[in-house]
Amino acid sequence: MTASPAPALHVIAGPGGAGGWDNVVAEVAALVGLEPVVESFPAAGGAAERAQALLNAAATMDGAVLVLPHQPAGPGAGPAAVRRVLVPFDRSGAESDVLDPLIRRALAADLAVEQVHVLTDQSRPAIWEGAGHHARAWLDELRRRYQVGTASLRVRAGSPAAVLCALAAGVDLVVACWSGETGAGRARVLREIVADTPSPLLLVRAASPTWGAGSG
Amino acid sequence: MSDATADARAEAPSPAPATHPTGMPRTLPGGIGPARAEDPTWCLVLGDAATGLDDAAIGVAEALLCLADGAIGTRGVLEDRPPGATPAVLAAGLYQEAPEVGEALLGLPGWCALDLPGALPAGRRVLDLRDGVLTRVATGLDGTLVSARFACIARPGVTVMAAELGDWARGEPSRTSPPVVIRSSLGGGAVSTMVSTVHEGPAPRLERIAVTVASGRRLPPVSRAARRLAEARRLGASGLLAEQRAAWAARWATGDVEVVGDPALTLAARFALFHLRSSARPAAEVAVGARGLTGPAYAGHVFWDTDVFVLPALAATDPPLARALLGYRLRRLPAARARAAAEGRRGARFPWESARDGRDVTPRRGIDQHGETVPIRTGDLEEHVTADVAWAAWTFATWTGRWSFLEGPGRPLVIEPARYWASRIRRDQQGRAHIDGVIGPDEYHEGVDDNAFTNIMARWNLRRAADLADRAGPASPEAAEAQTWRELADALVDGYDRTTGRYEQFAGYFGLEPLVAADLGRVPCPADLILGPARLGRSQIVKQADVLMAHHLVPEEVAPRSLEPNLDYYLPRTVHGSSLSPSVHAALLARAGRAETALELLRLAAAIDLEDLTETTAGGLHLANLGGIWQAIATGFAGLRPGGPGAAALVVDPVLPNAWEELRLRLRWHGRVVRLTCRPEAVFVGCDRPLDVVVRGRVARVRPPGSWVE
What we know:
Number of helices of chain A: 6
CATH superfamily of chain A: HUPs
Low-confidence stretches of chain A: 208-216
Helix content of chain B: 25-40%
Strand content of chain B: 15-25%
CATH architecture of one domain in chain B: Distorted Sandwich
Oligomer: heterodimer
Largest sheet of chain B: 8 strands, antiparallel
Mean pLDDT of chain A: 84
CATH architecture of chain A: 3-Layer(aba) Sandwich
Number of domains of chain A: 1
Order of helices and strands of chain A: EHEHEEHEHEHEHE
Distance between the termini of chain A: 26 Å
Structural class of chain A: alpha/beta
Number of strands of chain A: 8
Strand content of chain A: 15-25%
Distance between the termini of chain B: 20 Å
């Protein structure tokens, strides 16, 4: 496999290739404004090994990377079109520069965008004064800082990978911001999502490392 | 002790260089007055790398930099940013109907907006606590904006701004904006008006004076706003600034904290006092909500935060402001009586959350962190607020020496709650008295019986009411009830175990799952997010001081020498899931002689808003925590409390951490201005009139100007 020299939408498909996902690839390419390039990617090893290898490869690619589910493809295997988009965010701040414009473009294209934040041990507020007024104030501020346009925003708790994979089952596309770093302690959650997500996953690179060991 | 007044005199305008080393001009924009040199113990600086506040934290900065005068609060909004969802201006006591929370503070028109060319960064902003002047220096492509603004504490409702930005203002017409009238759906409303004046010259400058008059009862007449604007204009921005500086200097002269050797903590303490005193004004009543006038969170509702956490600091620094807080409760006695009657009780039951007219406005449903609807039971069950109001009235009298308040207008604030408790208490067959089905300060446990704090506070309330009845003599209306109150107080169970020295937080608490805070992670931690409310309710994890809150508020009502065993037991079980918690524990740890641990918790309390530990500071400052910071320092580390015969002497019993060289306090006590310098080996007591003190157990009479008490 070789990295394309120019920024592109690199499409990484399962063993059966990208066939059946044509509509999705075309719509995502329009969303990110990049030409799609289908990358050949060997499907050796188990899901975890494949996910790690896939991220290692994605880290070398300029532009964005669209990971199609690791499942046999064929006519009618993928959604006919992208209608619902899930955008997890970890409140690191730097991701907003990348995700916000993308979300605005998705909203302009009449896509239903749901932003989701998964509370983890690292991302919980130090002091939580309880349901009611405090929770309302906290959610108000979270929305003020991170909600983009008419996108919906919700908060979930639990294992980020498990929560996001479960939510991914109900959408046509997951958009994740990542640092492009795959070394020890990096991209742990993303590896699990790549291995388990039932939906296409669009990886966009943050300007600075954001999708790291904490929640990403 | 730095002297704000002397400092003001010392800071004469300097012709050169034109700026301070920080880049702040030496003259405020518009030449309205000299800009003072920054002092790290007086100036909150945002925009430096050290603050870590990025643009996303703009709401936090707005709350931290709020300017208020007890009537009107203006958040620290940027002049050139469009108004956001958070209202920039709020008025004390002016509520409107609001979905889900019943009543909420009404957002009023902003007055700070400037139509500037081009975009500007937030820049460097400095809130000078000495005079309440907020300055901003921001450089963009079109030049450098320098602005200054303040809320006139001597003229509540009057606000002033001056700004310069190259030639931006040149040729702009001066204009008076027509009055804007805002009506509340609940009655009352506000009128805002302002005048902007452009002064031409080498550096054209804009001066703006704005007036907002508001009332929660009836819409003020437009003429009132116009008259106040005319009065303010006669003084002009320069005159108003001079008045402002004199007013704040007078405040700091009678209420200040300085921790010599710890400038950051000194700044945090002064920041607390600044916002506490900005939240109230001398008036017949002031509604001080949980976030004051610094933001809309908690809907502006008034909780026990005001009575127990905010009031003591005001009683000891600005008694008229504390009196205004009590005026709010006094005027809502009819609603409290009506609620007690509706529930088949006597006396008065104050609501957990109060707003315009004193009816309970606690939402019965709220949302959790997921936005899911959950029941809220505090409005029905968190009854200790009724005794807390009585405690506030008593505290005001003991710190000011104004017993006439308790024998006169404030009397019902103690008597009526006692009547409520007397009708609320259940007697069992053995004659013991109980209070069933409540929520204590530890809100992780709902619907508990015999919550120690609630029972101890009710007992204290009954005894103090009986004391008042006794003082009034046998002809007093309460004379016949006093004996019953004392009997009930004596019969109230409190869960105290003589063998261990511990109080059981409520009946059955010791049998709960024996978790400690360390089991959940590093403290503070959000236990309800980790365990969930159901398991949390079955565990011994405590949200905030509960048993220990009784030791903090009414040490005379708990068993002698019971502080340490209860600190040892409950502190490890406490996760500080409330902004009210760290400061109280800091105070108690200091009283127990554990100064270093106390200091850790005081620093935690100081960081709650300055570092946004709750991630809700954007919705407003946690006023109760700010009051708690003062209490931790004054009643904890300095060991101040009423004492001696008739509680007429000021007890000073300092416990200082190793890092502190001195702790200096200015406060009011029984009509006197007191200056304390606490050192490990001695205490200096300064006063303007003779004063009885008890310093580390030694009784002394100090005469002006003061003396060291070894």
